[in-house]
Task: structure prediction
Amino acid sequence: MQLVIVTGMSGAGKSSTLKMLEDLGFFCIDNLPAPLIEKFADLFAGQLTDATGGEWGKVAIGVDARTGLTALEKPLEKMKADGIAYEIFFLDASDDVLVKRFKETRRAHPLAMDGRIEDGIAEEKAQLKYLKKNATYILDTSHMLIRDLKKEINDIFAANKNYGNLYVNILSFGFKYGIPADADLVFDVRFLPNPFYIDELKNDTGRDRNVHDYVMSFEEAHTFLAKLQDMILFLIPNYVKEGKNQLVIAIGCTGGKHRSVCLAEELYKGLSSAAEYGIRIEHRDIEKDTIRQRAR
Result:
């Protein structure tokens, strides 16, 4: 049997997660009041059966501000004492992303009452401290698309991959459009020759084979990648140890179209091959030069 408590910040993706777990064969219960969780755990331990008489082998319970977060510690501790195994899947996101999501959907934060969304977020963080501290998995969805979230859930609950509670975002960008505000690590690859000044490469991007081959024809590109990947692989377990659950690695060139895109793609391939953590890649400025030219 497998029991998963799905919780985290409102707006971080709990409802979507429950739907995805349901697709993976979990029996999902959303917004079960805190006093009932202990009773449900007793039933679960007694081998609950479904309508066909089969056992509920996998169950997910959605827990959020409506549940009564401050009342959860006691039933969860009792479950642990009674030998009922469970996992806590905690969904998180940055404050600015959460505020944006609430404004886009025009929903009120469940703890904001008539106040500001930021106040509701702060109160919810305080109430979720116990659950986050004891979480089995912590997933930051700030930069995730639905497909990224689905992949992470499949990796953890279907493919049974190891998960290091860290999600790595590799981001290419152009310095002329500004350094990404949420970058944790920023690397400048403008030391490499610029394909922009070669007519047959100018209008292509770092995703195209001809630009890739040009950038990677320089020994400095290979040396840079080897040293960068070695450093990142050293940093990741130390970040995890310190409780960091999201890492944004930004690689920049002048316009964010050629060199940074190529090297970001290469770093993504290198880290993905041995990753025990979530990883995605994004090219922030890859189309901006083209859009600006069309606007003229």
Q: What stands out?
A: The domain at 2-157 is CATH 3.40.50.300 (Rossmann fold). The chain has two domains: 2-157, 167-295. The longest helix spans residues 219-241.
